[in-house]
Amino acid sequence: MTASPWKEVTNLKNDVLIVIPAYNEELTIGSIVLLSRKYGDVLVVDDGSSDRTSEIAKEAGAIVIRHERNMGKGQALRTAFEYALSRGYSIVITIDADGQHNPDEIPLLVEPIIKGEADIVIGSRYLNGSKKEIPLYRRVGLWVLNKTTKVASSVEVDSQSGFRALNKSALEKLDLRGDGYSIETDMIVKASDNGIRLREVPISVRYDVPKKHKKNPISHGLGVLASIVGLIGYKRPLLLFGTLSIISFIIAGILGYLALEPYYNGGRVYLTQAIGAGIFVIIGIQLFIAGLTLNVLAKMVGE
Ligand SMILES: Nc1nc2c(ncn2[C@@H]2O[C@H](COP(=O)(O)OP(=O)(O)O)[C@@H](O)[C@H]2O)c(=O)[nH]1
Ligand SMILES: [Mg+2]
């Protein structure tokens, strides 16, 4: 087992709820529940699985809440957080059901909360070199998501990690209702908006598990990216629209060059390219104005 302060805090065991969102995880859910029970009560939110996830989780000693149909990981965690608040738990852990995370690292996540140093602790794959285990194409995608999350929240963390610990005050302050595509990112952005203290600790991640990813990486990654860009548009409109506007002007410049270059070489102006350049100039101006306007609105809303 990893070095941990668990001995000092085992009296806290009744106060800790370990939440496992699960969708068709019958191969691994049993062992994750069993290993997690050492550290607190275990709640599995079975999200309309068609396999024996619920049955095995119950046999292994978990509390099981089942959604009759699949509602997504975000909704599953919201259900779990409501449960935790209604039962008065003071610490909630979220951990994946597929075996990629090691429940014996739960104490590492709890430690900064117990010490009063953080309200949310994120298990990071980047702090101890376990990122080398991440396949290259995923690393690229994660890099983009981490950087865009940073623009939206001003904090740079392992933004898509599902292994986290939250204290009661974070649960109460986070308003995750009706939120978008990635609960992982939403949590970070909301935390930075609400003065919730974030901290990262290194964790290990396994890639030799039977079903490590349920979602298509490209469509899921793009979905998360779109929702982060939406957040940036809302929170930092001038940045988003300004960037898009600059891109439009660059395209206009290139088209303008293509239109005029033949003319300077003794030929005629290429009309199609010239019209294209004009259109992109107009788009660029519109985007810039939109950015300025939304920026003022965002400031007014923020005040
Ligand atoms: N409740 C619920 N859990 C889900 C859903 N999709 C994935 N999960 C769980 O969320 C965790 C992470 O999902 P996974 O596909 O492994 O994500 P990845 O490892 O980040 O690619 C696992 O425990 C899954 O069982 C869903 O639609 N509903
Ligand atoms: Mg996984």
Give your account of this protein's structure:
The protein has 303 residues and is α/β, with parallel strands linked by helices. It has 2 domains: 6-234, Spore Coat Polysaccharide Biosynthesis Protein SpsA, Chain A, CATH 3.90.550.10; 236-302. It has 11 helices and 7 strands. It has helices at residues 6-9, 29-36, 53-59, 73-87, 106-114, 136-153, 168-173, 183-193, 217-235, 237-264, 271-302; strands at 16-22, 41-47, 63-67, 91-94, 120-124, 164-167, 198-202. The protein has a 7-stranded mixed β-sheet with strand order 3-2-1-4-6-5-7, with helices on both faces. Helix 6 (136-153) packs parallel to helix 9. The model has no long low-confidence stretch (mean pLDDT 91). Magnesium ion binds next to loops.
Summary?
With 303 residues, the chain is α/β, with parallel strands linked by helices. Helix content is 52%, strand content 12%.
How many structural domains are formed by the residues?
2
For the record, the CATH class of the largest domain is: Alpha Beta
> pLDDT under 50 segments (min length 5)?
none
Described by strand count, sense and barrel closure, the largest sheet is: 7 strands, mixed
Overall pLDDT metric: 91
Helix run count: 11
Shape: elongated
Question: Hetero groups bound?
Answer: guanosine-5'-diphosphate, magnesium ion
What fold name stands as the CATH topology of the largest domain? Spore Coat Polysaccharide Biosynthesis Protein SpsA, Chain A
Tell me what the CATH architecture of the largest domain is: Alpha-Beta Complex
Strand order of the largest sheet: 3-2-1-4-6-5-7
Question: CATH homologous superfamily of the largest domain?
Answer: Spore Coat Polysaccharide Biosynthesis Protein SpsA, Chain A
Helix content percent band: 40-55%
